[in-house]
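Good morning,

Attaching, inline, the backbone tokens for the sequence recovery test we're adding to the shared suite. The designed sequence is right after.
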């Protein structure tokens, strides 16, 4: 007797006889997380009814040696494992999305005004080609932007080795799968955290795979930061790693995301089951942090699971399954964007479909030309009648323009007479402007009866305020200066120091003989 394993895991009610055929309304979607050693699969099968799709969860090891997926040996092992998985679970022809583990992809984010996001995204695209940790050779880049509010945006850049992306896509197409998306597993995990934990505080993500830790910070379902930890950090040293990086991550949230009150106390740990347990036990001994677990209710959104999986282990695959629900175009970068942009759409079907509207447009154009010819004759006669009246109309227009110019000049002279400013006040304002350092600006300059003035403004540094006061003390006509108070403010470029001061003015000097005679050279 042969010792073959029975790989058919379907229930008795789901089995078909040889004469049965798959229902035409049946749809299958596959979500696969690719880790350095394993494939974690979710297959959702829907029959077109109102019920939830049936979901199968399974994990298999694809790498049998130390070769990475970007090498020929590793690529062959990946193709063989994916082929066996499709054959055993029978989801050939399904649409599939992949989540790449922390060792296979890198995601960087930026946020702020649109111009700063444009500049940062351009720098991140150039820098992504230098990520040697992803392997030698060119990199595949994908950019995604989403609006935070009316003035600010969140930009994300994901990078992966181009050979890795091609290996995954080619292996999927060989077994009849239609690849829809490739994204970072931390991005998928952040999406699931946003669905499971509805809160206003950002949380930490710790993905542990193959003895390595990849940190992330997520807020409202978006990944704000990905941090690739060194090889010395293991699941047992997760508390030390968080203690070392907590202040830095809090400063990042406050500087780039406006989350100044973030504490980063909650930690969501996901990844390989045994390593998640080790990291959770180590974190339980650190009172500064609290390990949070994904609730099993997170599975209800995906469908009805045949065998309930470990939520932490399949967290990235579950978050990947939420991608179509959140809107793939604005949710996260898709590493297939470059391949999709390079695809060429056949022009012949488009031209054939456009032939009928084009013929109709030509008929309309011919009819319009005939109608235009008839109207042109009438227009010629009207032009002759208008030319006969051209001389009196031109004379009337000339007189009207002369009157309008005179009226405008009269109004302008009246306004100038009302708005004349004392030359002494112009001198004072000019002197105050000359005393301003580069990092100080004024909001209010109020002159009270030519005897006193009140000034309010702000500076990026406190020293700039005192420099401004010292310069004013040496300015002409300034008798006494009193700094009434300072305060702390915030601007889009950083913290500011506001101030209020009052100064007494000396009386202007008596008019000399040149002023009496109206000499225009007098200042």
């Amino acid at each position: 007797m042969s010792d073959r394993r029975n790989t058919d895991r379907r229930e008795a009610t789901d089995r078909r006889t040889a004469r049965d055929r798959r229902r035409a309304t049946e749809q299958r979607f596959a979500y696969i997380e690719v880790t350095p050693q394993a494939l974690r699969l979710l297959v959702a099968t829907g029959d077109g009814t109102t019920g939830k799709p049936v979901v199968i969860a399974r994990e298999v090891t694809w790498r049998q040696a130390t070769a990475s997926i970007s090498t020929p040996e590793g690529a062959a092992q990946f193709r063989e494992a994916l082929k066996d998985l499709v054959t055993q679970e029978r989801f050939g022809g399904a649409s599939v999305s992949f989540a790449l583990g922390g060792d296979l992809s890198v995601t960087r984010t930026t946020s702020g005004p649109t111009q700063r996001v444009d500049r940062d995204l351009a720098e991140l695209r150039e820098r992504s080609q230098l990520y040697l940790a992803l392997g030698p050779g060119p990199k595949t880049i994908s950019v995604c932007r989403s609006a935070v509010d009316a003035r600010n945006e969140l930009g994300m850049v994901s990078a992966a080795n181009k050979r890795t992306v091609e290996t995954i896509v080619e292996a999927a197409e060989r077994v009849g799968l239609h690849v829809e998306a490739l994204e970072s597993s931390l991005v998928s995990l952040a999406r699931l955290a946003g669905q499971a934990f509805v809160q206003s505080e950002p949380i930490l993500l710790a993905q542990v795979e193959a003895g390595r830790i990849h940190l992330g910070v997520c807020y409202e379902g978006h990944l704000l930061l990905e941090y690739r930890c060194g090889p010395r950090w293991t699941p047992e040293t997760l508390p030390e790693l968080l203690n070392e990086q907590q202040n830095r991550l809090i400063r990042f949230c406050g500087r780039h995301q406006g989350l100044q009150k973030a504490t980063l106390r909650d930690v969501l740990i996901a990844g390989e089951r045994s390593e998640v347990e080790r990291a959770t036990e180590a974190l339980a001994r650190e009172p500064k942090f609290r390990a949070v677990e994904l609730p099993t209710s997170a599975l209800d959104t995906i469908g009805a699971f045949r065998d309930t999986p470990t939520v932490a282990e399949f967290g990235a695959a579950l978050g990947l399954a939420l991608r179509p629900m959140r809107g793939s175009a604005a949710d996260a970068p898709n590493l297939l964007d470059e391949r999709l942009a390079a695809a060429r759409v056949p022009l012949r079907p488009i031209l054939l479909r456009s032939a009928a509207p084009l013929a109709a447009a030509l008929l309309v154009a011919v009819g319009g030309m005939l109608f235009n010819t008839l109207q042109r004759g009438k227009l010629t006669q009207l032009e002759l009648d208008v030319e006969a009246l051209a001389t009196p109309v031109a004379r009337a227009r000339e007189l009207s323009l002369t009157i309008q110019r005179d009226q405008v000049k009269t109004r302008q002279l009246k306004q100038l007479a009302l708005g004349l400013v004392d030359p002494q006040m112009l001198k004072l304002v000019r002197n105050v402007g000359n005393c301003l350092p580069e990092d100080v600006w004024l909001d209010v300059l109020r002159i009270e009866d030519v005897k006193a003035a009140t000034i309010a403004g702000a500076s990026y540094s406190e020293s700039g305020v005192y420099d401004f006061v010292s310069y004013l003390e040496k300015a002409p006509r300034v008798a006494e200066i009193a700094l009434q108070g300072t305060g702390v403010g915030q601007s889009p470029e950083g913290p500011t120091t506001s101030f209020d001061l009052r100064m007494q003015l000396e009386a202007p000097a008596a008019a000399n003989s040149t002023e009496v005679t109206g000499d225009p050279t007098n200042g």
